[in-house]
Amino acid sequence: MWTHFYDMHSGGGMKEPPYEHIFIEADRDDARSIFYDAFGHSPDRISCTCCGEDYSIYTDETLEELTGYHRGCAYANFFKDADDEGHLQRLTKKETEETGYNGSEWVHLPTKRLIFGRYIEEPDSKRLSREYMTLEDYLKQESVLVITAEEINTRGLDPNTHVPEEGWTWK
Questions:
Q1: CA 43, CA 38: separation in Å to the nearest integer?
Q2: Looking at 81-143, which runs of residues are DSSP E strands?
């Protein structure tokens, strides 16, 4: 599991320059504690009430999926059930247009098959504002910091550190 702390520049600046994106290999709760232990402030802090939270926080199973949007990856829908060979089947454009939300999950309406979406390793031709890059190239950027599970142990960062409430809070 990975957690992404995306600096929202609230209050007018970055909180841990030059890192706009901090990825920690841990679930959300443990990653919050590790973040606090590493940087000395809560990732939930609100520095400015008009700007909102200091960080947007996201989690996902893989670093590839968690970075997909920022790397300019295309997003595709797949049927949850595999084909006869055990491969996931990507929905066609027509099939994607035939989907709907049943109150709890996305469904291909004609067949009632459940679907899910994920980023795929190809350029997003619909979003020209963000050029596609590989995960390896993305992680080399100066604005990206990755703290792996191994590094958490090596640096002695504690996933049980108490994270205090800091700054403004929404009540």
A1: 11
A2: 99-101, 106-108, 113-123
